[in-house]
Amino acid sequence: MKVLGIETSCDETGIALYDSERGLLGEALHSQVELHQRYGGVVPELASRDHVRRVIPLIDQVLSSADCHAEYLDGVAYTAGPGLVGALLVGTALGRSLAFAWGIPAVAVHHMEGHLLAPMLEEEAPTFPFLALLVSGGHTQLVQVNAPGDYVLLGESLDDAAGEAFDKTAKLLGLGYPGGAAMSALAEQGEAGRFRFPRPMTDRPGLDFSFSGLKTHALTTVREHADDEQTRADIARAFVEAVVDTLIIKCRRAMEQNGLRTLIAAGGVSANKQLRAGLQEMVRDAGGRVYFPRPAFCTDNGAMIAYAGYLRLAAGQHAPLGFAAHPRWSLTSQN
Ligand code: KG4
Ligand code: ZN
Fold this sequence. Notes:
Blueprint: E1 2-7, E2 12-19, E3 23-31, H1 33-37, H2 44-65, E4 75-81, H3 85-102, E5 106-110, H4 111-117, E6 130-135, E7 140-147, E8 150-156, H5 162-172, H6 180-188, H7 212-224, H8 229-258, E9 262-266, H9 273-285, E10 289-291, H10 295-298, H11 303-314
Parallel strand pairs: 1-4, 4-5, 6-9, 9-10
Antiparallel strand pairs: 1-2, 2-3, 6-7, 7-8
Helix pairs in contact: 2-3, 4-11, 5-7, 5-8, 6-8, 7-8, 8-9
The structure holds 5'-O-[(R)-(carboxyoxy)(hydroxy)phosphoryl]adenosine and zinc ion (ZN).
């Protein structure tokens, strides 16, 4: 089965072609980072307009590079939510229309389900059931994944997502948008132990997160200390250590509670070096295994949407002729 995937939920236009027999046949991505950088964050209207400009040429590019004509396709998968409504509507309207025109089924994919399944695209893929740490710009969630479509939400962020905390703290330290990767690099220059940030909500039971206090902590630390490059690096280091430690503590707790030994981490923040190393170590000590998508599939991409769409289509699901974008959509209530 060949499925075209379309991702336009935020600031990346991602297109991919997945074949259930041969794997990924092609993919292309256009990042809008340069477009939004000067505003210090994503401008929704600019994002939608740019998706409109990019999406059809990228589909043409992916299909022709894979030497695949539309008539060979078995379905079209598009991200229907959660995300920016205007941006989602571009992929949703186009995905639904192409499927109608080509006479094949369309399937509405949940963006976080795409992230959650992204490690399955790797040669060394996890097997179900597993525990998933989803860490993106908009969500931080711990999910028990029993099978495709069978998800139990174990915990989530009550305020800022991990990626959002990275981006806000990066802004405060004068790094560009998005700041996750830049924070990680700056932290590597920082001195360990000069500052210590709290590990929010780890001193009580439960698997929820709260990251908004960390940026306030960073702000107070910046104000109280000299604004030199070394201090900024030391603050970045303390911040990254706090976020990573907190995520690891909650993953370990979830593994202990549900007895699962297989963990996956996905979403933009799972590209973070410090987090990957820390999770590897924790899982090794716990006698388990951790899986990550390749860094390019940690952040938004079309491949994860094509793959999630393929699984849904193979299970007999597809979207009705009408369509809707779901800017707020819970992962566990989608069926
Ligand atoms: O999954 P994603 O591409 O988009 C959403 O679904 O939100 O995640 C984007 C987030 C941004 O907040 C970005 O700063 C963060 O992922 N990010 C990172 C790294 N690379 C991307 N955070 C920490 N370290 C990184 N290396
Ligand atoms: Zn995402």
